[in-house]
Design goal:
The complex is a heterodimer. Chain A is of the alpha+beta class. Chain A is built from 23 helices and 17 strands. Chain B folds into two domains: 18-186, no CATH class; 202-319, no CATH class. In chain B, the strands form five sheets. Chain B has a five-stranded antiparallel β-sheet. Chain B is elongated and about 105 Å long. The chains are: A alpha+beta, B alpha+beta. Chains A and B meet through helix 5, helix 6, helix 7 and helix 19 of A and helix 2 and helix 3 of B.
């Protein structure tokens, strides 16, 4: 393999530099600044080596640099394991490999490192733009690989050839993507560091914490309903339930999943749907109230809050059924009811006084107290706003009696406090309310600004009853959306606003494309693969049948490509075929044409040996020579040559 | 030990691969059946990298990672096809081969013919462990190339087995084939470095007698060599100086005479090959001096003449002397 020892040419060095740049530039935001700068210096150094024909740095210096780079990464991350440190190390190696490009083997190693880094990008983002960028990097790296074995063609030709080969590889990619038996990761240690900074509902609710989310139009999850989309006012997506109150903020109870199946009876019309949940790093999932089924690996806490065993770190898809009219907790345990009545010893005296008056009036009649509380909230003329004033120590009193302006968490917090003070068990439920149907693909899209907090009260004989105190003051929030409920002029996220219809339309289209991408490309997991293959008529697709189908189809594609690639194999120059017939005839008379002999030279020799046919031989050879080497071939030449040779009988 | 085993296995494979009994009739077309394809070292590294990447994509559930790995795997398959195509259906014709002296380099000429409308790039041809010759062939064209092999023995030297390989375009896959073109090169005996002087003695003298001219003129002495005829030894001069080397008498003045390079002019102690070497040297010397010369071998007689044709004929006779018997 003498070839792998060939020194790297200048042109190859430029190619390698280009693919290293293309592969590492998208990773700049993910790695520390010093590493990007160091890589930049190394690339510049490489460019100078190539441009000015400097010497490569000595080996001892490279060894020092490798040690320094690795030490830097270890000091930065305190580990070399995991996603970001691994990528950082690859960047260090790539940058230094460029400084020791000596032979073709180094060039191949560098190109492979670039492919690895393309994969590395996907650890951070897998959007359509990322895919396009990765495609470009793959093209450049493939052209580099081409240049590593033959660096003569011009760069554009090289790119074209790389593009052609990648295009021919596409059918294989599609088949493998669809049919290669998928395995649900992780294969070994759970990648802990994925999705460390993602937005979603917090696990405590204090005044202002949901208002913060209302500024984000990031997507929380998408829902595909089997049948019609239920009315907006029914779309309560139940998330974390928060019964614990410390005087200011509400928090979830650290309870493990208690139920594998829902502990209440179904009632009314069931709603079937499929959720594609964006990763949010927490354990809980979102289900339309009240969940009737639980997906694989999901349990229901004693608060009827669906939680999964693992934090939601990947986009996940699950189908679920809801009973919007079900009653839960008819026989609720005493412990839970006690928790749902707990209040701090003091604080918010005015609310406590109002609650005491309801209690005095209605005794233990929960329904009546509930009505009194709703009536009270209605009379206070509370204003629903994104920008509530800051509240002091007695936050409930201040909200209900002084400022009277708040967001959903203010309403829910005050309402639960009042009910508990009046002796009715109550708690806060956080989640999302509403959502918007994308007319392009029919998916209901729930965004972060749809985050909401509402309340549940426990009434003897009815179980837990949902009351949304926000709806008392701002019914349009529930029946329409956020934009309809808040006063005009308040800063809303772009997509939450009602005006700018054309922008919304555009965004809807983009979102439908993204959703399609998420559903079919990124969300193509073992489950979806089985569904698709079953839909295509494969009975019980398992890895064996998939591999068999895959092999057959790949073989077919390969055969097709082979035929296409070798399509010209039988096309022999007809003039040459005629010439061979002619020489074969002469060979029978002992005049053997040698392949290296030109036609005219052969004719002279043959004429000398067979003077009787000298003229015919000369004519044929002259015609043939003109057809092969002449400047202007004529249309009838071939026919004439064939006729002359057919008539030639030595 | 391992290397020897590998070599043995390789030989067995080649014998199986060639199948047809060499040498093969021209033109040799490298059909699909005789083009072999395996990954190169870079190709194996590429495959290993893909496996690692696939594991990473699985562990992190990266759909695009799967897509990338599958695309690159497809690229590998496409590379196989392209590399295979770069070599398959190439036709090889034997070309010219100029005779050389044993010990020199035979330049086997080959004509590579590309009947496809696409170029063939970076084909490497080599014999055994020699450095490969790299050839590109334009669409519908042919390219002439020569492969050098050291000639060891006089006579007809058949072209050894030729390996033709390519790893274009990606360097990940190597396609190769073997061929034994029907091409032989005439190898003349190595001209002796030390040879007796041109044999002007008895035969020449006889010739000169026939021509009616005077006897040779004595022109000097030189150190005796094994091949010198005993009767040319200057016995008187040897006797004069004690312990001195044997001396041979040199004669000149035969320029106008015909020169016979005679097999029997050399003493019987000289072996066949050495004898042919000396005769070859004589032919070269005589030719360089522009003399007309004849050649007498036990089985062949070449009439005196001069010029390149005579030289070729003489050397050819020496090269093929008793060749069939070997």
């Amino acid at each position: 393999m003498a070839r792998s020892n060939r020194p790297v040419s200048l042109r190859q060095a430029w190619w390698l530099l280009a693919s290293a740049l293309a592969a590492s530039a998208p990773l700049t935001p993910q790695v520390p600044l010093w590493l990007s700068l160091a890589a930049g210096v190394a690339y510049t150094w490489r460019a100078a080596i190539t441009w000015r024909q400097w010497h490569l740095p000595p080996r001892w210096l490279l060894v020092l640099l490798v040690i320094a780079g690795t030490a830097g990464v270890v000091m930065q991350y305190r580990t070399t394991m995991g996603r970001t440190p691994g990528i950082a190390l690859l960047l260090v190696f790539l940058a230094l490999k460029l400084l020791e490009l000596r032979t073709a083997r180094d060039a191949v190693v560098t190109a492979l490192l670039c492919y690895f880094l393309v994969l590395g990008q996907f650890l951070f983002t897998q959007t359509i733009p990322t895919a396009l960028l990765a495609g470009l990097t793959t093209l450049i790296t493939t052209a580099t690989l081409l240049a590593a074995s033959d660096d003569r063609p011009q760069p554009l030709l090289q790119l074209r050839r790389a593009g052609l080969m990648l295009a021919q590889a596409l059918p294989f990619m599609l088949l493998l993507f669809l049919l290669f038996p998928r395995v649900q990761g992780p294969l070994w240690g759970i990648p802990q560091d994925r999705f460390s900074a993602i937005s979603g509902l917090p696990d405590t609710i204090a005044p202002g914490s949901i208002a913060l989310l209302s500024q984000s139009d990031a997507i929380a999850f998408r829902v595909k309903f089997k049948a019609e989309v239920p009315p907006q006012s029914q779309l309560y997506w139940r998330g974390p339930v928060m019964p614990a109150f410390d005087g200011r903020s509400w928090r979830i109870r650290q309870a493990l999943g208690a139920y594998r199946e829902v502990p209440y009876a179904g009632r009314g019309v069931a709603v079937d749907y499929e959720v594609t949940l964006e990763p949010h790093g927490k354990f809980w999932q979102f289900a339309l109230e009240l969940p009737a089924t639980l997906p694989e690996g999901v349990a229901l806490t004693s608060d009827y809050q669906p939680v999964s065993r693992q934090p939601v770190r990947n986009r996940m898809r699950y189908t679920q059924r809801a009973w919007p009219e079900a009653n839960a907790g008819l026989n609720e345990s005493q412990g839970i009811l006690r928790d749902a009545l707990a209040l701090p010893k003091d604080g918010n005296p005015r609310t406590r006084a109002a609650a005491a008056s309801w209690r005095a009036q209605h005794g233990s009649d929960g329904t009546a107290i509930l009505a009194a509380a709703e009536n009270f909230f209605n009379q206070q003329l509370l204003i629903y706003t994104l920008n509530p004033p800051l509240l002091g120590a007695d936050s409930v009193d201040e909200f209900l009696f002084d400022t009277r302006r708040g967001f959903c968490e203010h309403f829910a917090s005050a309402f639960v406090f009042a009910l508990r003070a009046a002796g009715v068990p109550a708690r806060i439920v956080a989640g999302y309310q509403g959502g918007e149907v994308n007319p392009v693909d029919g998916y209901l899209v729930v965004r972060q600004y749809d985050a909401h907090a509402w309340t549940e009260a426990w009434i003897a004989g009815r179980g837990w009853v949902r009351i949304d105190p926000t709806a008392i003051s701002a019914p349009s929030r529930i029946n329409l959306n956020l934009a309809a409920a808040v006063p005009a002029g308040e800063g809303l996220p772009f997509l939450a606003r009602g005006d700018l219809a054309w922008l919304r339309e555009l965004r809807h289209r983009l979102d439908a494309v993204t959703n399609g991408w998420n559903q079919w490309v990124l969300g193509y997991n073992p489950q979806r693969q089985r569904d698709l293959l079953a839909g295509l008529g494969m009975k019980e697709p398992d890895w064996r049948s998939m591999t068999a189908v895959l092999s057959v189809l790949c073989g077919g594609v390969m055969l097709g490509l082979t035929i296409w690639i070798l399509r010209n194999r039988l096309r022999v120059d007809p003039a040459f075929a005629a010439w061979r017939r002619f020489t074969a005839r002469l060979a029978r008379c002992g005049i053997v044409w040698q392949p290296w002999e030109g036609p005219l030279a052969f004719a002279r020799r043959a004429a000398a040996q067979a003077p009787r046919h000298a003229q015919r031989i000369g004519e044929i050879a002259a015609l043939y020579a003109r057809m092969r080497y002449g400047r202007s071939p004529q249309s009838g030449d071939l026919v004439r040559l064939k006729q002359m040779i057919a008539a030639f009988r030595p | 030990m391992l290397a020897a085993l590998r070599h043995r296995l390789h030989e067995v494979f080649v014998r199986w691969a060639l199948r047809v009994r060499p040498p093969e009739a021209a033109p040799i077309v490298l059909t699909q059946r005789r083009v072999y394809v395996l990954p190169t070292r870079a190709g194996m590294a590429y495959g290993a990298a893909l496996v690692v990447m696939l594991l990473g994509a699985m562990n992190y559930n990266l759909s695009l990672g799967h897509a990338l790995v599958f695309l690159l795997a497809g690229l590998g398959v496409v590379a196989i096809l392209h590399t295979f195509r770069n070599l398959v259906h190439l036709s090889i014709r034997p070309g010219r081969c100029e005779p050389v002296f044993a010990g020199g380099m035979v330049q086997f000429g080959l004509l590579l013919e590309n009947r496809r409308p696409d170029a063939r790039t970076s084909l490497r041809l080599f014999i055994d462990d020699a450095d490969p010759v790299e050839v590109d062939i334009a669409p519908h064209a042919s390219a002439a190339t020569t492969l050098a092999v050291r000639a060891t023995k006089r006579g007809w030297m058949p072209m050894p087995r030729l390996t033709i390989e390519t790893s274009w375009p990606l360097g990940l896959i190597r396609a190769w084939s073997y061929a034994v073109p029907d091409l032989s090169c005439l190898v003349y005996p190595t001209p002796a470095e030390k040879a007796p002087p041109l044999p002007w003695s008895s035969d020449s003298a006889r010739g000169s007698t026939r021509d009616g001219r005077g006897a040779d003129d004595f022109s000097g002495l030189r150190k005796h060599q094994v091949a010198d005829a005993p009767r040319h030894v200057a016995w008187k001069a040897v006797a004069r100086q004690q312990d001195g080397p044997l001396l041979t008498k040199l004669f000149s003045g035969a320029a106008a005479q015909q020169l016979w390079l005679d097999w029997t002019a050399l003493p019987d102690t000289v072996g066949t090959e050495e004898r042919l070497s000396i005769l070859a040297r004589w032919i070269l010397d005589a030719d360089a001096a522009g003399l007309a010369w004849g050649l007498r071998l036990p089985t062949l007689r070449l009439a005196p003449d001069n010029g390149p044709a005579q030289r070729s004929a003489g050397l050819r006779a020496l090269a093929l002397h008793n060749h069939g018997a070997q």
